[in-house]
Amino acid sequence: MLLRLTALTKRYPAVTALDGLTLEVPRGLIGLVGANGAGKSTMFRLLLGLTQPTEGHIQVCGVDVAADPIEVRSRLGYMPEHDCLPLDQTAADVVSTFGELSGLPRRAARQRASDILDLVGLDEARFRPIGGFSTGMRQRTKLAQALVGDPELVLLDEPTAGLDPLGREEMLALVARLGTFGISVIMATHLLDDVQQVCDHVVMIDAGRLVVAGETASLLDRTGAVTVDVGRHHDELVAGLARAGVAAAVVNGAVEATVDGDLQLDLVRDVVADLGLPLFRLSTRLTSLDEVFLRSAGGPE
Question: Is the pTM higher than 0.85?
Answer without folding.
Answer: no
